[in-house]
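Hi C.,

You asked whether I'd gotten around to modeling the 195-residue construct. I have! Everything is below, sequence then structure, no commentary in between.
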Amino acid sequence: MLASITPLGERARGNRWTTTAVLFIAASITAGAAVGAMLGLLGSLILAHVGIGWRLGLLAAALALGVVWELRRGTVPGPRRQVNERWLDHYRRWIYASGFGAQLGVGVVTIVVTSAVYGVWAAALASAHPAAGAAIGAAAGAMRGATLLAGARTTTPQQLVRLHEFLRSIQRPVRRCTLTAQLALVGAAAVVLVV
């Protein structure tokens, strides 16, 4: 999908990439906020009488479990489907841009590549408040939607090939960085809980 929604691809479909990217990112933010709000509401119902320490512990446990799972299994549980790229040929721009963006913003309806996605939803749940959950989800949706910007300068087939090579080359370093960040958050939560 990242390689399909580039200035090169959008020009071939007769669309302006900037407009497509805005629709995509807005849908990703909106979907993330909606899921986050629902989880925050659920958290307010089931965790209302649980102190912040326990909720922080829940989040730390979810993040730690994700790191352990990834290191032991090498993959993350979740669906094995991608967005349907036939949408690009069958639907208008606002449908595929919004549809792809929303699926990315939800985070768990396509292939989940990092357990941090589950950590985000654990944070929204642990917030125990719909507005806080919405903010967490919107931030996650914005980050996931912004991945489309990696192809912002892809206007030729050669640049598309280089984009693919670049994305392949950063896969492992990004995974290590994500796992390290998760462990740092677990450590920070432990310090807060102990102090």
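If it helps when you're writing up: Residues 127 and 165 are 39 Å apart (CA to CA).

Thanks,
B.
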